[in-house]
Design goal:
By secondary structure, this protein is mainly alpha-helical. The protein has one domain. It has helices spanning 2-25, 35-52, 54-63, 65-89.
């Protein structure tokens, strides 16, 4: 059951990240590129990469305790940035 929930959450995060990336890339076709678009593209791309390589990141962090805490801190910052990006675009 836990594996199913994790898989569903990963798919949802990937879908939201891809939709967010399309949301931030769309204005570029209308010659609008600003710091908000650039940061939104960066955050969404980072979330996609983290989602795709989640298994490898988890295995690498399990081997080293300091890396585990550093990665947890980075994930908190990334999630806060994603929430901030969503709040700023709404």
């Amino acid at each position: 059951m836990k594996k199913i929930i994790c898989t569903v959450l990963r798919v949802l995060l990937l879908a939201v990240s891809v939709l967010g990336l399309m949301w931030f890339v769309w204005p570029i076709s209308h010659n609008v590129l600003n710091i908000g678009n650039a940061l939104g593209i960066f955050v969404c791309s980072l979330l996609i990469l983290l989602n795709v390589f989640a298994g490898g990141i988890r295995k690498a962090c399990a081997a080293h305790a300091p890396l585990k805490y550093f990665t947890a801190f980075l994930l908190v910052l990334i999630c806060a940035g994603a929430l901030w990006s969503a709040a700023m675009t709404a």
